[in-house]
Specification:
Layout (H helix, E strand, L loop, with lengths): L1 E4 L5 H13 L3 E4 L11 H6 L7 E4 L2 E4 L1 H11 L10 H31 L7 H22 L14 H13 L8 H10 L3 H6 L6
Parallel strand pairs: 1-2
Antiparallel strand pairs: 1-3, 3-4
This protein binds glutathione (GSH).
Glutathione binds next to helix 1.
Length: 206
């Protein structure tokens, strides 16, 4: 059975868990990282020298990097709808997955670390405000892209929706002012209809 190593509060672990639910794939998960530690133990570093989560072990095949894991699992289980073989459709999905990891994720992470991981008296409002601004800019771009589309890569749900979908939950969960982004809101509500999103992502952050 697929082993997933990583705490379920990690956005990168959640990507893999959500996908497993989409694929109806059984797995065994182990709590590693964050308060559970063990990610810097020699046994773990031998599997993933970055000391980060997630890492998966698929019957002896060890893989890390959440997006590589998602692509591997989608391809292995023939999830053509989630990650099509057609090169251009696939490239479009890959592009938005990368955008989630390199633009939306880094924009919202400082705010997440402040609001969720820092005791209130130590929080820095300037860091939160800057992160809020950057995230609003990223999501404004996404809102324009989503005009006339149900999901990021078109009319159906794909891997493109997963990385930024996880950040969208955080954005709507934080007690902040948000610009009116109707297409992002409608997309976020559509994601909320999915069992994997509700189970693995839509959980209280503190
Ligand atoms: N690029 C990596 C990033 C992995 C990463 O940064 N994981 C974080 C959690 S989201 C981590 O392991 N942090 C240390 C910890 O949880 O102890 C991926 O996508 O898998």
């Amino acid at each position: 059975m697929l082993r997933i190593l990583g705490r379920k509060t990690s956005s990168n672990v959640q990507k893999v868990l959500w996908l497993c639910t989409e694929l109806d794939l059984p797995y065994a998960r182990e709590d590693i990282g964050g308060p559970y530690g063990r990610n810097k133990d020699p046994e773990y570093l031998a599997l993933n020298p970055n000391g980060l989560v997630p890492t998966v072990d698929d019957d002896g095949f060890v893989l890390w990097e959440s997006h590589a894991i998602m692509r591997y699992l989608a391809a292995k289980h023939g999830a053509e709808a989630l990650w099509p073989a057609d090169l251009k459709a696939r490239a479009d999905i890959d592009r938005w997955m990368d955008w989630g990891a390199t633009v939306a994720g880094p924009a919202i992470t400082p705010m997440f670390l402040q609001i969720v991981r820092t005791p209130k008296p130590d929080q820095d409002p300037k860091v939160i405000a800057a992160s809020q601004q950057k995230t609003a800019e990223a999501l404004t771009l996404l809102d324009q892209h989503l005009a006339g589309r149900k999901y990021i890569a078109g009319d159906s749900f794909t891997l493109a929706d997963i990385p930024t979908g996880i950040q969208a939950f955080r954005w709507f969960w934080f007690p902040i002012e948000r610009p009116d982004l109707p297409n992002v809101k409608a997309w976020y509500e559509r994601l909320g209809e999915r069992a994997g999103y509700r189970q693995h992502v839509m959980n209280p952050l503190v």
